[in-house]
Amino acid sequence: MSYQSILEYLAELSKSYFQADKIRKSQFLDHAELITKYNRKSIIRVLKNKENLSNLKKNCGAKVKYPEDLLLPHIEFLWDEMGKMSAHRMMAAYKDWLPYYNDNEVSKRVKFLLEKMSVSTLNRFLTKLRRRNNQKKNRGLTSTVPAARHMQNKVPINTLDSTYKTPGYIQADTVAHCGTKLQGEFINSITLTDIVSTWTVNRAMFCKKGHTVRKTFSHLIPNIPFKVISINTDSGSEFLNTPVFNMFAKDKINFTRSRPYKSNDNCYVEQKNYTHTRELFGYHRFDDKALVQLMNDIYDNYWNPLQNYFFPTFKLKEKVRVGARIVKKYDTPKTPYQRLLDSDDVCSEKKEKIRSIKKQLNPFELRKGLEAKLDHFFKVVVEFDKMKKRDK
């Protein structure tokens, strides 16, 4: 029974208590002890304190520091714009997002409260928002085909036993936009992510033959703002082939592969398959070449800049086994951009280049442009689907 409820009960009791005789008062107190679990003398003191009973809500509970009706609409808007990230990442992202948050309804007090609140307080707001859209996640199909034995022998296996401290060690993987069937030709997205900085780039390609993958790599690698030292892929035939192997050998990039059916060997890029590709384009089937250019426009000009410059990521700091449990500790969330600036292995020229790029970016404008491009993209997809049905 809450303190407020006890006061309400005793306020009603006091109306009859002071008019009753001694025997009746004793019966009232016996009942009050049973209901409130208070000592008899404490109940008498509360009954005699008319000020508390006449003003029940005075000084009851802590003052509300973060009013829900004021802050929840702003938190919901920012959470949507930031891609529904966790409370820790969202707090880390405020310094890059709030300076651009200049909506007419945003006051200095709102920004002050958003920056001042703790991660736990923010997470309580986000918990309320998550309950509204708790939907079951879909699962995609794998289109990885084992490479020929002679190519597997050429490319050495690399596991995560080594600890990398320098940007430039890349993991690569593909995502099939095949819908619910793997038959026929369709678009694939290739993802490259750096283990140390978490800098990630994506590009769409039609099919995933050796020469197509090589062409995609030749476009992505020069646009990465640091020297690529090594690339690790899975053991699929789209990577382990002569065109890709010869390209890496020519560019003096160390080429390694993970063990077949051991996705954790390539875990850094595997997790980006969902956050950077599936969350963006879903699990639809895209089998028209015309969509490749539209997807790459979204990746290059909107999605990758948002992820690399404005979306903080966690990095695993240490992992310790305690009995049967593995305890993981993470560092403070930072954007891939900030991790590159903090690295002593990235030259000042490269740092200055990404600084100048960031100055030209506004996260809210990028998000607005992204939504417009996605809306146009899926309208085109619907039109293509209608044309195919008419042709049948």
Care to describe what's here?
- The chain is of the alpha/beta class.
- It has helices at 3-17, 22-36, 40-48, 50-54, 68-81, 87-97, 108-116, 119-130, 149-154, 210-220, 242-250, 267-281, 290-310, 336-342, 348-359, 363-391; strands at 169-176, 187-194, 200-206, 230-233, 254-257, 316-322, 325-330.
- The strands form two sheets. It has a five-stranded mixed sheet with strand order 3-2-1-4-5, with helices on both faces. The chain has a two-stranded antiparallel sheet with strand order 6-7.
CATH first level of the largest domain? Alpha Beta
Task: Please tell me what the overall shape is.
Answer: elongated
User: How large, in whole angstroms, is the Cα Rg?
Assistant: 30 Å
Mean pLDDT: 85
CATH A-level architecture of the largest domain: 2-Layer Sandwich
Q: What is the total tally of β strands? A: 7
Going by helix content, strand content and strand pairing, the class is: alpha/beta
Number of domains: 3
Question: Which features characterize this protein?
Answer:
single chain, 392 residues, alpha/beta, Nucleotidyltransferase, domain 5, 3 domains, 7 strands
List the helices and strands and how they pair.
Blueprint: H1 3-17, H2 22-36, H3 40-48, H4 50-54, H5 68-81, H6 87-97, H7 108-116, H8 119-130, H9 149-154, E1 169-176, E2 187-194, E3 200-206, H10 210-220, E4 230-233, H11 242-250, E5 254-257, H12 267-281, H13 290-310, E6 316-322, E7 325-330, H14 336-342, H15 348-359, H16 363-391
Parallel strand pairs: 1-4, 4-5
Antiparallel strand pairs: 1-2, 2-3, 6-7
Summarize the structure.
This protein is an alpha/beta fold and 392 residues long. The chain has helices spanning 3-17, 22-36, 40-48, 50-54, 68-81, 87-97, 108-116, 119-130, 149-154, 210-220, 242-250, 267-281, 290-310, 336-342, 348-359, 363-391; strands at residues 169-176, 187-194, 200-206, 230-233, 254-257, 316-322, 325-330.
